[in-house]
Amino acid sequence: MGDHTVRLTTAQAIIRYLNAQFIEIDGTRQRLCGGGFGIFGHGNVTCLGEALYEHKDTLPLYRGQNEQSMGFAAAAYAKYHLRRRFMFCTASAGPGTANLLTAAALAHANRLPVLMLCGDTFLTRLPDPVLQQLEHFNNPALGLNDAFQAVTRYWDRITHPAQVIQTLPAALATMLDPADCGPAFLALPQDVQGWAYDYPVSFFAEKTHRIRRITPDADEIADAVALLKSAKRPVIIAGGGVQYAGAVAELTRFAETHQIPVIETIAGRANLRNDHALNIGPVGVTGSDSANAVAEAADVILSVGSRLQDFTTGSWTAFAKDARFISLNAARHDAGKHQSLPVVGDAKRGLQLLEAAMAGYQTPASWTAFAQDERRKWDAYVAENVRPGNRPNSYAQAIGIVNALCDPRDRVVAAAGGLPAEVTANWRTLDIGTVDVEFGFSCMGYEIAGGWGARIAQSEAEPEADTIVFTGDGSYLLMNSDIYSSVLTQKKMIVLVLDNGGFAVINKLQNNTGNESFNNLLADAPTIPEAFAVDFVAHAAAMGANAVYADTAESLAAAFKAAKAADKTSVIVMNVDAYEGWTTEGHTWWEVGTPHVTDNPKVREKHLEIEASRAKQRKGV
Q1: pLDDT (tens digit per residue) in 219-249
Q2: What is the DSSP letter of 588?
Q3: What is the CATH number of the domain that holds 352?
Q4: What contacts 422, CB < 8 A, 6 or more positions away?
Q5: Residues of the domain holding 128
Q6: Cα-Cα-Cα-Cα dihedral sign, residues 423, 288, 368, 310
Q7: Is residue 420 reached through a cis peptide bond, with omega within 30 degrees of 0 on the bond before it?
Q8: Which of 42, 187, 213, 472 would be 346's cystine partner, CB 3.0–4.6 Å?
Q9: What average pLDDT does this structure show over 523-547?
Q10: What CATH number corresponds to the domain at position 536?
């Protein structure tokens, strides 16, 4: 070793570099990488495992049960920390890495930083073909890891130890970029992981990162102000980017100063508390009558930190065709969607500039009063919708019971199936940033794994709060092993398993398009001679959790109180109705493909009914 270099393996250099990275958050310096999730195999245990062992105290490695769920947990961790901290996932070459593909897609869709350090086949090819290698006879350089190029923001294959000097800073820069944030993937050939190089000592000096804030262009601000000042019926769409930019206070002040109603996206739930006078509710397909009434009548829409996906826009039928959009977004791609007037830049700085230039503007009082009156009607609907005993056991009732008993800083986690819609519509936000409804990728299996990752993050920052997971029986059966992970690592969660006998929300869509129930509910699957219920209580208890069945509102409330008081993960199981339990109000039109030709008269009738609503669809870009 020379005076200014240190000889390390590729794997040792990667981990030493990560260990030296810090970030400043609200004046406090923290380690940028919170550790990682790992399952070892021949592709990562000997070299990367050796390097990780040396830093196990500062970069804790959580042993996963499934690589896909590790990726979900890492995504939830990053979301909790508002993309300012991340965790890595390491998997072996072959099926271990392949299992991460879905998690990478989830992180990409939700624009969350996750670093994947994955084994690869030998660069020298001397032992080829090796165990688990995919051979492409006409392209020997092509392998499984190349599949991740479609689902990551940064991708590289390390072919020489010196390469990490350029690659690691570039990967981190991508993960911390507000406009280009997302997962990074490093393919690590097994031989290269162990190769040594004389690295500059300066490469491993501690570095403190800060999230870049881009100030919007003055002309774009001026154009936005002119349009906003002309508005008679303005509304603000508050997306997830508001929280990522730390702009909740600026959004609130801007709305209050000008008395502009605010409607929230799914990712933007918990930008405002439920009881804020200008919070008109969630918008879109899984929204509220109140927000959708305001959206339909608005003449100018200021979208802040939203990518305006179809569940927000009702496949672009939720707004008047002549309404004008302003999109304030760090990402140029999002800011210009559907002929929006773009304001490219940081939401916090953008709102500050808009407010400074909007002095004197006040929303017509009649418009704000209209919005608030619609919200009062929606509140009355939700109160009745979550009331126990109003119909058979339902998602909404369970949500209402938990909502009434939880603490303000408890974090609720939900994902695919019917629960994202039910949580979005019925959950009454008690505090800012406490809702994680994963609907960017709508990914079954995120719920319990994401709850574990969220709890790891939450236990670092506010251990007195709880992580509450809502999952259906379908998602539970797909991925439940992180109940065991949470018990092993003493990261307590409260998991509610609401069992409706299959994939009931897709059965609902099937029925709503004129089709007969087929292969979604267990009772309607032709290849199942005799369906039987899974004993979820026994299953969860076998993984070490406290587990109990609740069949009434009273028993659910008692079980939840006990779970709050317990010191380890609790699973509460409740059967809910597959047909009568749904929230029926608050939905906009949603474009789904239906058969243009069919012999089924009910399907044909529904096709014509669905297509008739297309007349409201904006023809944007």
Answers
A1: 999 999 999 999 999 999 999 999 999 999 9
A2: P
A3: 3.40.50.1220
A4: 395, 396, 399, 582, 583
A5: 5-209
A6: positive
A7: no
A8: 213
A9: 96
A10: 3.40.50.970
User: CB–CB of 262/269 below 8 Å?
Assistant: no
- Measure the CA–CA gap between 381 and 434, rounded to whole angstroms: 23
Phi/psi for 480 (5° steps) reads -130, -5
Q: Is the pLDDT of residue 494 over 80?
A: yes
Same domain? For 54 and 187 the reply is yes
Please tell me whether residues 233 and 201 are part of one structural domain: no
Please identify which residue in the block is written with the tokens 């000997």.
46
Per-residue pLDDT band for 1 (boundaries 50, 70, 90) equals very low
Q: Three-state SS for 31?
A: strand
The first and second tokens of residue 388, run together, are 């126990």
Residue 567 has pLDDT above 80, yes or no: yes
Q: What is the mean pLDDT of the chain?
A: 96
Strand (E) positions, 151-285?
A: 154-157, 184-189, 196-200, 207-209, 234-238, 262-264, 279-282
Q: Among residues of the chain, what percentage have pLDDT more than 90?
A: 96
Domain membership flag for residue 143: yes
Q: Which two structure tokens, joined as six digits, stand for 550?
A: 């609740």
* Among 475, 470, 464, 467, CA closest to 502: 475
Does residue 16 carry a pLDDT above 50? Answer: yes
Domain count, the chain: 3
